[in-house]
Amino acid sequence: MQIVGYFFILKNTTIIYNFRLQYDIVIGLEIHVQLNTQSKLFSTSPTTFGAEPNTQANLVDLALPGSLPVLNEEAVKKAAIFGFGINA
Fold it and tell me: What pLDDT score does 3 carry?
């Protein structure tokens, strides 16, 4: 933001400020998507709709010490295709 100001001195030492503000308008969108993959992004746990709670988890999902995540290759391919499709 840049402030450009002018002031005028009138009778009886009255000071009037005339400020002109210059803004850069930036509009951002946050979009959440769910890819139609068979497993989660960083684990091999399934993503079956309607399953019982806490049944689709493994050691990586529980963040147990020593467990390392593995990136879902199918999700990366679909995300890349989506990104190219929207010219991102």
Answer: 45
